[in-house]
Structures are given as structure tokens and as C-alpha cells.
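Subject: design request, 206 residues
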């Protein structure tokens, strides 16, 4: 068993903070170069079979193992899109270094901005008009049941022929979302007020 020549990223179960996340690159002789996203752990060389054997208990317990193409633009940063219900309420951009060469240095701070940030209007449009409605349909949810605050993390994918960014979903967070952009609390309050009013109307006799 071996991976394709192009690097892949593997995530076991619900990885966080670099725990359970690796970059795996095929080498000659049936070996793989395995780099953990955790801190300064050095890369290891072993077969893919041996690597998977180390995590057999976790995967057989139902955590699963996700493999996906490694995103070459990951050093351009991760974009966190903050949502309230089905509306974008802000962004956080951070230069990540978890799966970079150790010489790349530590990650930078997450820098927050409001929903009007010109850099991310394409992402905002996709989240509000396409991806969130699609997620709701796929999972059989109602817009009104989406959390008052949640977020989705994206890496930058290949640019389009006209030079626009594309985005690759990393994960969705519905807990431990804070801190949030300064512009977000007012939008959260509006969402909560609207839901309280809707609940009050629903309780009134017909």
C-alpha cells in the first residue's frame, strides 16, 4: 500500500491543534515521508501500512481516517469564515505553518475583519448563496436551527484562470468558536432577537 506521488494530508477522527493531522509524501522503496502537524516533531520515514497500523485502534473505534490532496497554497493562510445562522458576520485570516518545513517558523496571529472585507467577498457569496443552503438541504436541517455563532475554516485552493481564489473546506466548528471579530456581536444579537420573536409568535394561539 502506498500513496500517490503527490502529497496527501491525513486526518484521524476529529483532529485539533495539529493532533491527528499529517502530511504524507511518497518516497522511493515503498516508504513515505510522514510529517506531523504537531509542533516541532520531526518527519519520519516508514511504510504507509506501518503508519496506518499505528492508528488501527482509533480508526476501528469509528473515528475514521480522512485523506485529501495536500493543498500547495496552505502557506498563504487559512481563512476562518464566521457565521450567524446563514449570514457571514466576519473573517479571521491566519498564516499557518503546521505542515510546512520546520524552517518556515511559527504561525502568525489570526487577524480579524468584518463581513465587508474586500479580500473575501467571493467566499462570502459562496457561503451565503451556495454552500450553506446546500449543507442545510444535504443534512435535512432548517436555517433557523443553525447556531447563532459557528465558523468554517478554509485553505486557498488553485486560482481560477482569471486569477480569483478558490477555497477548500478544512472543518466546521460549532463550539469553542470565540474569540470572534469585533463586528460580529451586533449580528449575533440580531440573530438571537429574530429567533426569540419567531418563537414568541409560534407560541401565540392561532
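Subject: RE: design request

Done. Sequence follows.
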Amino acid at each position: 500500500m502506498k500513496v500517490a506521488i503527490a502529497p496527501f494530508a491525513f486526518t484521524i477522527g476529529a483532529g485539533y491543534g495539529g493532533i491527528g493531522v499529517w502530511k504524507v509524501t511518497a518516497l522511493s522503496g515503498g516508504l513515505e515521508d510522514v510529517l506531523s502537524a504537531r509542533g516541532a516533531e520531526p518527519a519520519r520515514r516508514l511504510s504507509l501500512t506501518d503508519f496506518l497500523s499505528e492508528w488501527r485502534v482509533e480508526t476501528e473505534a469509528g473515528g475514521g481516517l480522512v485523506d485529501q490532496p495536500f493543498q500547495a497554497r496552505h502557506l498563504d493562510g487559512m481563512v476562518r469564515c464566521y457565521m450567524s445562522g446563514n449570514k457571514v458576520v466576519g473573517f479571521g485570516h491566519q498564516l499557518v505553518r503546521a505542515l510546512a518545513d520546520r524552517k518556515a517558523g511559527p504561525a502568525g496571529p489570526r487577524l480579524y475583519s468584518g463581513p465587508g472585507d474586500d479580500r473575501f467577498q467571493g467566499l462570502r457569496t459562496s457561503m451565503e448563496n451556495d454552500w450553506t443552503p446546500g449543507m442545510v438541504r444535504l443534512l435535512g436541517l432548517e436555517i433557523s436551527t443553525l447556531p447563532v455563532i459557528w465558523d468554517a475554516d478554509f485553505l486557498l485552493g488553485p486560482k481560477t484562470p482569471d486569477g480569483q481564489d478558490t477555497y477548500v473546506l478544512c472543518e466546521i466548528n460549532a463550539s469553542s468558536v470565540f474569540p470572534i471579530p469585533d463586528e460580529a456581536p451586533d449580528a449575533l444579537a440580531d440573530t438571537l432577537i429574530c429567533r426569540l420573536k419567531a418563537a414568541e409568535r409560534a407560541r401565540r394561539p392561532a
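The mean pLDDT is 88.
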